[in-house]
Specification:
heterodimer, A: mainly alpha, 6 helices, B: mainly alpha, 2 domains, 13 helices
């Protein structure tokens, strides 16, 4: 477990380093995810080394969101000022993304002779 | 003495774990999608802090420690991506095109609606990563000058809304293939949508989990474009 966390944090740190050092548009954590994927693929990192730590974090992901959401109380005034564009954009766009993603996947797998 | 205790990380961490645990029990008891433990816990903690006049700064001493774990969680998303690499390669074209279209739709529709309804550029940047999982969305908002806590709130709101309406909308649009449905749920409603999809279909849930990571990547690459367009 300690090894797993050490690896995950090292990759994040490396990602942050690349992100700021090379002025990349990606957050360090995303670069870390790609680096982990590549090193797993080429066997430099064994799945068993990181599996436990990754599972622990991802299983409790919904709890980790809570403090981020509580932080919104600081911005209540700002939300009150722009509540209309904020809620309308969020709700309508969510419907649009659900529809376009699902329909594109459905259309493309049919076109490609998918077995569904 | 009370003040020292409130300012210690012990307070924020304990409150978060305790309230989230109770919210999970409530969700298991009533099995109602709107009683999403994340949103119930957020609202409850805000009400507790306001009612007892405890400042957000006191809470965040502990809250920030939990928040920190979102970073390594993003790195950890590489593990399920690696584990499902065979399924991914088999369905690569529909998966990539579905997520790309979804990511572009998300950024485009939020920005246009925000600007049409009188919101400013900062609000557009704040809401644009709404369909991406919180840790990535937070990173993007911070990097491109959005309001980070507001992004976090919008992401949670998006996840809950998508998880509630997603399955019905898919049925209405005759998207019956669990893989296509999971892709839509994960792309539009990240972790919260994935949780809902896992209850409906296992394979669909796995694809949704994959969509979280890929949409995060694609949106991360689209955000600089949006920043340039908005100026």
């Amino acid at each position: 477990m300690v090894r797993g966390f050490a690896i995950l944090l090292s990759f994040q740190w490396l990602g942050e380093l690349l992100s700021t050092g090379l002025n990349l548009p990606l957050p360090g954590s995303v670069i870390g995810m790609v680096l982990l994927l590549i090193t797993l693929r080429f066997g430099l990192i064994k799945l068993t080394w990181v599996n436990e730590a990754a599972e622990l974090l991802l299983k409790n992901l919904s709890m980790l969101f809570v403090p981020a959401g509580v932080g919104v109380m600081v911005y209540f005034d700002l939300i009150a000022k722009q509540w209309l564009p904020l809620t309308v954009a969020t709700l309508l766009s969510t419907l649009a993304v659900l529809a376009t993603t699902g329909l594109t996947a459905k259309f493309m797998s049919r076109k490609g002779g998918g077995n569904d | 003495m009370t003040n020292t205790l409130l300012a210690s990380p012990l307070f924020g961490i304990t409150l978060t774990l305790l309230v989230f645990h109770l919210a999970t029990l409530l969700n298991q008891r009533f099995k109602y999608t709107l009683l999403n433990p994340t949103i119930v816990a957020i609202v409850t903690i805000i009400v507790i802090l306001r009612q007892s006049d405890i400042s957000y700064t006191d809470y965040s001493a502990g809250g920030d420690i939990i928040l920190f774990l979102l970073g390594p969680s993003v790195v950890a998303l590489g593990v399920p991506l690696y584990q499902r690499r065979t399924e991914v390669m088999q369905r690569l074209i529909p998966i990539l095109s579905g997520i790309s279209v979804g990511a572009i739709t998300s950024i485009f529709t939020t920005t246009v609606i925000v600007l049409l309804l009188g919101g400013d550029e900062q609000l557009a940047i704040t809401i644009a990563p709404k369909s991406v999982t919180t840790p990535i969305a937070i990173g993007l908002a911070a990097k491109f000058g959005g309001l980070v806590p507001l992004t976090a709130a919008v992401v949670v709101m998006t996840g809950c809304f998508g998880a509630v309406v997603g399955p019905a909308l898919c049925k209405f649009l005759r998207i019956n293939d669990p893989a296509a449905m999971g892709l839509a749920m994960g792309t539009a409603a990240h972790g919260i949508g994935t949780g809902r999809m896992l209850e409906i279909d296992l394979m669909g849930g796995a694809i949704a989990g994959l969509a979280i990571g890929l949409n995060g990547l694609i949106t991360s690459m689209l955000m600089p474009v949006l920043k340039v367009i908005l100026g």
